[in-house]
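Subject: sequence -> structure tokens, single chain

Hey, anyone have a minute? Need the predicted structure for the following. Not urgent.
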Amino acid sequence: MTVAYKGRVFSVEIGTRTFPNGTEHEVAIVRHRPSVVLIPMADDGRLVLIKQYRPALGRELWELPAGSLAAGETPEDAARRECEEETGLRPWRVERLRSLYPTPGYCDEEMIFFLLWDLRTPPADSTLAPDEDEDIETRTLPVTEARRMVEQGEIVDLKTAYALTLI
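Reply:
Had a minute. Here:
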């Protein structure tokens, strides 16, 4: 396999693979570190959503916080970090729900879903903040309202729509 592209978030490998039936085929595979998808719940049972610009679609989307694992980072630590970076809240309780592969036809990314609660303001000396290319707005709302947003096409992000089925 040859690396045709290597970027900050993913790389693309192109080459041939032998399939289980013995035939060889050309393939292109997007390599992506595992990511975490967060379901942050406020003490009153409401959900924390974020709105951010997605350049691939050229618009802002409402979605659940998510992000890739850093090298050597556990999924649980990534969930805590991403929650604080994207919502400004630090979770004290983290529960791993399940993991899925969203696009296995061409990408090896594993999405690991977490339920987060007991959200608190981080200490004043915390250095965690959104990435330089992120301009994030947060909104706390009832889960029923988030589900309505999916039904009405206000939430079009698949990981968010799926995560709402887990709670």
